[in-house]
Amino acid sequence: MLLGVRAVLAESYERIHLSNLVGMGIVPLEFMPGENAELLGLTGKEQFSINIPSDLKPGDEIKVAMDTGQEFRVLTRFDTDIELVYFKHGGILNYMIRQML
What we know:
Layout: E1 7-10, H1 15-23, E2 27-31, H2 37-40, E3 48-50, E4 61-66, E5 71-76, H3 81-88, H4 92-100
Parallel strand pairs: 1-2
Antiparallel strand pairs: 2-5, 3-4, 4-5
């Protein structure tokens, strides 16, 4: 089974890495202040379910549910409205192609 990476969860992002993720249509998520994978007991083997609301705004908090039943909140690291536009189009390339058609 082929799985596509749709989100990345980290403690923080360098601006260039954040821009690259958004440009590829990937959701950049950040742990809440004071939290990290170790404190939440994450091993990297969990399966995550993330519901992205259609009315998402830059910096919104969303819930992450795991196959273990555990849930936690994260920050979305869309910092601007245009980053959300790129994401909703599947990345900057898809957005630009649609603009040219």
